[in-house]
Amino acid sequence: MSRARQPPGGPLDGYLGKPPELTFPQKWTLSGAWQRAQRADARFGPVDDAHFDVLLERERGGWGDKHRVLFAIQDGRLRAHCDCKSYQHRDWCAHVAHLWWRWSRDQLGVTDLDAEETHLSPPWWLTVDDAEVARA
Ligand SMILES: [Zn+2]
Is the model's pLDDT at 26 over the cut of 90? Predict the structure, then answer.
């Protein structure tokens, strides 16, 4: 299947320089964001090749705010970003965590923007610091 090649930048045009790489914070598997990412009811869907809208259930019920999350591969690295406050402060949040959780369980298609391929689980060559724990 071939698609028209996107102009340089494409869906990542809004970012200054390279979009941020996903890094897992220390002890992230114990983080509240990760716990919530696995427990909360979620609605999410792709916006374009690189972004998803993610809506998570709040701890006390009801839906949280919808957030736009960058989650895509570029230059062989997983690029991630979220517009929520938690991400601005910690470079980590339940929305990004939720997408990782889905992806590592074959429940999400993530686009490699260079190869124009969709990966239904993290490819073997993708290295994300400390991610191995989460693949099991
Ligand atoms: Zn977020």
Answer: no
- 2 CA to middle of ligand 1, Å? 32
Compute, in angstroms, the gap from residue 127 CA to the centroid of ligand 1: 22
Mean pLDDT for the stretch of residues 5-27: 76
How far is CA 81 from each of CA 1, 2, 4, 16, 127, rounded to the nearest angstrom? 28, 28, 26, 13, 17
Between the CA of 88 and the centroid of ligand 1 the distance, in Å, is 8
- The rounded distance, in Å, linking the Cα atoms of 11 and 4 is 14
Residue 131 banded pLDDT, cuts 50, 70, 90: low
CA–CA distance from 84 to each of 1, 50, 94 (Å)?
35, 17, 10
What is the Cα–Cα distance from 62 to 127, expressed in whole angstroms? 35
Please state the φ and ψ torsions of residue 3, each to the nearest 5 degrees.
-125, 155
CB proximity list for 23: less than 8 A, separation 6 or greater? 91, 128, 129
Rounded to whole angstroms, the Cα distance separating 73 from 88 reads 21
